[in-house]
Amino acid sequence: MEPGTPAMALPEPPNAQDLDISKQLDGAWTSIGAAKQGMGKYQDSRLRKVVDKSGDTLNTLQGDVTTAQSYQTSAQTVYESDAMKVVRDGVNSFIDSLPGLVKALDEVAKLHPFIGIAVSAFRVVIELDMKRRDNDKKIGVLFAEMKDMMEALLQLRSVKDEETIGPDGMTIKARMQSLINNTTEDIKRCANACDAYSKKKLIVKVIKGSVWETTLKGFIDLFASRRKAFTFALSIHIGVGVDDANRKLKVIDEKIDLVLEFFANIVSPEQQELAALVAKKGGATAVMGSNEALSELLKFKPALSTSAGKHTDRGAAEHNKHQDAVDELAIVKEELFDTPELTIRKNLEVFERKFKMQQRELAEEMRRMVHHEGDRVIQAVTGGPHERIIDPDIHEIWREMRWPGHVKARHFVLALRDYFRQQMEINQKRKVDADGPMSRLNSQDEWAIEYINLNRVQAIAEAFDDDASGFITIAEVNHFTSSRPKDWSLPHWLAYWAIGWQMTATSYRSKIDDISAKMFAIRSLIHPANRNAVNTYLNTVWTKIKTLTASMVGYSQSDELQERFQSYVDSEEQRLREGLETFRYDIDAMDTLVLLTGPGRIEKYIFPLFYLLSQRHFEIFRISRTTVIHKDELWDAVDTIEYVMDAVLWRYNDLQAVFKQQQFDADQQFKVFASELFDYFHDRQQYWSLKNLRKIEFTDVEYDDAKEDQNVDPSKILNYPSASDDLYTVPNDVLTETDNNADDAVRMILGRWYGFFGANRWPRGCMVTFCFHASADRNAYEASDVAALGTSFTILGGYTIEDDGKVEYRFSITYAARLIKRYFRGALDEDGFTLSGSWGTFWFKRTAPEIIIARPPPEDFKENKIRALWKYALTYSINEARRTMWSWSHFKARRDIRKEYLELLEREVDEISTEDDLERFAVLDRTSTYDDTRMFYVMQDYRQRPKPVHFGIVCDHCENHIYGARVVCMQCGSRFTFDFCDKPECVGSTVPTRDDIEGPHLPTHDFVKIRTDILHDREIGKILRQADVGMARAKTLLERASRAENGAEEPNSSERTKPVRRDSSEMSAANSDDDVPVLTCVSCSTSIARPCWYCIDCPDDANVFVCCQCDDQHGGVSAGDTHKAMHSLIRCSMLTNDDKSEEDEKDSTEKRVVALESQMSALSIQMNRIEKLLETLVAGRAVEES
């Protein structure tokens, strides 16, 4: 009963069944029976068998069994209690009773619209819970009590007008409006708490079970209170009998006590087993303080699992891409640290997004499930399976074919085709005989029958058969026909899935490819500070998206046909766009993706989803030309694409399992399924082998910003502040009104703190600073700031008072970049100026950072505290004197620290840090203020961002990641390239064997040197083709120059070309085929000789060579306006004996050809002479005859 509600006698309700206790509890579970069976099976569990077989360890392990049996005894007592019969019999019908309850509540809401917000919230959270079902019985009890509370509103059916005035002069709407509003928020809070609880690991539910139980129990009491308040408010208007109503309200209170007891004793078998192990290790407190015990418990595998299943496995597979390498122990400690209140609060933002999306999905479902004209109204199902089919045409087919509840997909589609062809023939006959039978096919839909044919059987079957089982059920038929657009007929809908989906996917594929091409075209315009982030994005997502778009077989038809489907395509695109805008285009979990797309196969949504995401990410690229974006901006964009690809992987795994079960050849099935969408995903080497990449030419475009939207607002695109906005933050240390109202324990730690975190090494990072403020809750506190490495973080915490009266502070740090959260627990020193702790070692002071950096390390204090304190004071005094006097020694020390810190950061990025480097980091971190290290990281970030990184490319000799220049063998590899660092020992190495080469790789092979960070799959083929052409040209030029130098060819000096080192106008001058080039290094102008490098990016007529000495010395050279240091080069190696033999043979052949040409020329001269002689003789004879 609500506070302030007067106690009064209640009249007897006319509808007694709405208050009947047995009906009120028709919504919990009978799975208390599962608990009984589970404990029975426990006697035969693996642990118990080990006990029976291991006599030596029986006494030790018997305690575990006894502990587990204590849980069993408690559960059995609850299960067998007669008082629990109502709960036991009713809760199992919870799920089954929901549709009827929701429908009844909707009807009441139409009569009394003011309860609509509570009914809508109840429906949304029920749908969310159904998506998340994990068999957690405690959550089930909460939702059952929520259901009972909502059932009380059914009494409003007896009140026909919400404006009817009661005995006290108030209308039912005025009396209940505030109560309904509060109930709506209660429902949301409960659903958020259940969502947060369901995400906890099993070990956390066991160790912190009692704490969570207290929190969740509060909602049972709350819902009971709301239910009584509803009953009280309604009793005034429906005339309930006083004594009977009071008696039944008392029974409700007694029933709630029973449910609370049931709730406390309901424990799954897995939790029972794990609880026994926790008890053996000393209990929850001892386990939480021992990393060793936690690590051991993490290996726990339950002998019985009531929640295992496909959905659970998939849920467990969800991950954050930035946390793959995070220690699982740290994640568990994170969950153990949080209080339920803190966990629920942190989960609220994510839950609210899901709630909003579920609301939208329900509204969309209502729109899709409208009653189509001509649909059958199902009144009875006794006439056969076909009576359950809504669509009249399919109902007629099903009836005539006498199919059971399912039919083979191919048979079904062929029957559809024959049926509609018959109807079209009837239409044709009616044009001749108007008195003939009526056709069920509208003449306006005859165009669609053309596409319901044998060639489209596979596509139509897939549209019905979502699970790819090969069979179509009545439920699938009803779902398919009910989900069609409101104004579309069944033939129209069939034609879309027969041909329209493939046409639409083809159109989206072209758009995606165009956006991808523009992304690569704009790369050269990206701000240097953003270049690495852009390249990381492209290297991570482009190949995955292209694998799907390239695999799908496209299909194009007339614009007229596309126009028939465009209304549905546009509405689906708009639905996805609105969902993405709700989530700020950031998909952070698989359930978020499901809420976004809605039910059904991922292939239905994959291309429009990729298109919308690519479009958004391209706008981030455009902003990146002029604005230094936050480094997490594109990081999260990558995560979003990765989660979509996870859904593709799940679908692929499902299909593969189905094909295996049906004994189909998966290779052949993927070549026909979904227009071959998964074919390259199934066999990646078909498309992405090096052999194939040498042939593929991807689309390239010129970027033209004038064609793009000029009215894009960056604030609506970016989810993070730009990097330039948060390099340094302005301290916000002013106390607020909330701070003044905080608890005494919280007020003691408010304000600015500086300090370090540590572990085995002190410190384990650079200085951290933040300012604590009180939270809205009086017993909580929070802080927000930016770490020295540039990532924003938020601190949330609370406190507990120990038995001895000591205050223990607990807080967690959450990073904006989705890095693993860190958890800490500690206390204030007596002076109130030091906050320190050992769970997550930390030490913070309310002291100026310049004083803190003078403090000696902790080991000095342990060794000799007096000496350490003297050293502390002297160091600070000297530092302060130098700083205030602006002495040269002060600036020199700062310069040296900065240079060494940047060198160490460079080594860290290159992944070559040593233990000595880490020790030096510790020394520099504890002697540098927060502002100093923030500056170091900013400088390193701006240095590192433009540096080319060859993503995923490892040297085939030293096996390290390649930074800087990448040297690729032009001759080896059919599956992947042979890559080397630009170091003599790597380039000059021999690789004896690899599975995609026939012979060894030799250092004499031809190489191409790549200095830009290319996307391997997209650009390596083009580079190798250019390299082959360039190598042929370079060899020709070198051979001609060599012959000229050796006197084999003596060109006229006036015809010789000028040296290559010249200005751009000279470099563009072409050499005729008759010219003999004089080849010089573009940098030092010395004559070129093998070995040397030739540029393949400069125009062909530039003939740009670089000597090895200049290239090695400068790491690439630039010359004029044409040749740049980042251009790709091919190596012209020294001629080997085989090469020389080929050259000699070539020269010998050429000489023989020249000799033959000379002989032919002499013979031609002789023939000319003979011809002239004969002409003279003929002319003389003619004169004589005349």
Quick summary:
The protein is built from 47 helices and 18 strands. It is α+β, with helices and mostly antiparallel strands and 1186 residues long. Helix 3 (46-53) packs antiparallel against helix 4.
Structure description:
With 1186 residues, the chain is of the alpha+beta class. It is built from 47 helices and 18 strands. It has an eight-stranded antiparallel beta barrel with strand order 3-4-5-6-7-8-9-10. Strands 14-13-15-18-16-17 form a six-stranded antiparallel sheet. Residues 1-80, 304-326 and 1049-1073 have low confidence and may be disordered.
- Bin the helical content: 40-55%
How many angstroms separate the termini?
A: 148 Å
Contiguous uncertain segments of 5+ residues: 1-80, 304-326, 1049-1073
Quickly give the structural class.
alpha+beta
Q: Which band does the percent of strand residues land in?
A: 5-15%
**Biggest sheet character:** 8 strands, antiparallel, barrel
Oligomer type: single chain
With strands numbered from the N-terminus, the spatial order across the biggest sheet is 3-4-5-6-7-8-9-10
Task: Describe the structure using short key phrases.
1186 residues; alpha+beta; eight-stranded antiparallel beta barrel; six-stranded antiparallel sheet; disordered N terminus
